[in-house]
Write a structure and sequence with these properties.
This protein is α/β, with parallel strands linked by helices and 301 residues long. The chain contains eight helices and twelve strands. The strands form three sheets. It has a six-stranded mixed β-sheet with strand order 7-6-8-9-12-11, with helices on both faces. It has a four-stranded antiparallel β-sheet with strand order 2-3-4-10, with no helix packed on it. Strand 2 and strand 3 form a beta hairpin. Helix 1 crosses helix 2. The longest helix is centred in the first third of the chain and has 24 residues. It is globular, with a radius of gyration of 18 Å. The structure holds zinc ion (ZN). The site of zinc ion has 8 residues, from loops.
Length: 301
Amino acid sequence: MNELLESCPICGGTDLPAKLQVQDKSVSQETFTIAQCAGCGLQFTNPRPDAAHIGRYYESAAYVSHNSAAQGLVNRVYRMARFFTMRHKVALITKLNGGRTGRLLDYGCGTGHFLARAKSAGWQVTGLEPNPGARQDAAARVGQPILEVSALTALPPASFDIVTLWHVLEHVHTLNETLTQLVAALRPGGRLLIAVPNPDSLDAQYYRDNWAAYDVPRHLYHFVPDTMRRLLARHGLRITHTLPLMLDAYYVSMLSEQLRTPAQPVGPLVVLRAGLRSNQYAAQNGGQYSSLLYVAERAAG
Ligand SMILES: [Zn+2]
């Protein structure tokens, strides 16, 4: 069943005009509306399948983050990029934690590649994941049980140095409730890292309704820097860094080219040029990269 949000999840505003119609070309072929709150600017998929009925929109072999055995060019590139970015991510959280390892919670850990890398670098890790198949994969990869997301409320309060959500928050129906619980799990002074696509990037403007990172109806919210700042401020968090995820410009451009011209194979040069153009635009236009990593701090004390 679809559910219609009558008010904005960030500001509570009720003036929610349609901004863009986007077709789910990868799974259902259905078309969804992205609304934009007139009050705070939040863009979100509205109406959207409710939490009990969204499962079938994930039933596709192309949904690579839940299927590490998938083949094809997309998946080969994805795995290569993942190998290089995991090291970088673990180095980043260690630096943010004062150069020390500590306790890490990865919410929506998928098949567990990041957690496994962090654990082998000395982090004490906890992973939560809603997809049963991914959870099983992750448990084998990380070498410890991975919990269902409902376990979040049972975690000891203020016990994690770092909490990460890598392309996860845009999928969460219970946005504010989940953020409240994640902040409660974070120690004062700890950091919350949220990676999400950025619909103010050049590749989003260029591909418009074919921009792969709209990914409706799986992506429920389409945050830009200002709406993320407002959301996190509501939860007592202050953004300390906004970092580019430059490989995402290439990955998202490749998927977007496939959506734009499904009958043609995607040329690597087209993807290279599109990704490079997006990153160059971002460097010259206030850091509007294809995807952004927001680092937010829970106030100490
Ligand atoms: Zn709003």
